[in-house]
Amino acid sequence: MSNLYIVATPIGNLEDITLRALNTLRSVDYIACEDTRKTSKILHHYNIEKKRLLACHTHNERSSAQGIIQLMQAGNDIAYCSDAGTPSISDPGSRLVESVLQADLNVIPIPGVSAFATLVSVAGLRDESLFFAGFLPHRGQKRSKRLQEILQIPSAILLYESPYRVESLINELACLIPDRYVVIGREMTKFHEEFLRDSAKNLAENLSNLQQQGEFALIISHNHKC
Prior knowledge:
Blueprint (H helix, E strand, L loop, with lengths): L2 E5 L11 H9 L2 E4 L2 H10 L6 E4 L5 H13 L4 E4 L12 H9 L3 E5 L4 H9 L6 E6 L4 H11 L5 E6 L4 H11 L3 E7 L7 E6 H6 L10 E10 L1
Parallel strand pairs: 1-4, 1-5, 2-3, 2-4, 6-7
Antiparallel strand pairs: 7-10, 8-9, 8-10
């Protein structure tokens, strides 16, 4: 039976890819990817040439899944990579996996890096359960309502945020939960990697020290107060 391999890729540092991921990318017949240009960069870096790439992203995931299923039914093994990290975690991939499973075909995880696990590993939050909230809605009442809802959850909260909205998010946290401990990771595994750890209030007061470039991940502690 043909397989769909869900392959985790680096979130910045290309050396973070696993040997199993590389062997999988070398062996499959097709590689489906969120952005063919970004996956091509990884393939070129590791001298994986002449692979047939298929675009499968947020805007075409349902339709491209049908083509991938047809290729699998014809006997082809396929890998899927999102732009960075582990597919289906605030990234495309879950609809593809759902469709392939509904077609009674096999899905195999090839685990590796995720921004989620990377930040948790250096947060230093002991004995706290963790709630992964992903990205908040971009603006308006939906955003405010969702943020207030998740802050009521009796767990540490992990969020992703873009550089365009991170300042607004930190200011909101300073108003809603000024004394709760927050860990911010920016450009993780990359050259300008940075971690900030303080109360929401203190982080908001020192926003001038925060380089608002690159992707951000945040953990908001529930138990740890400053």
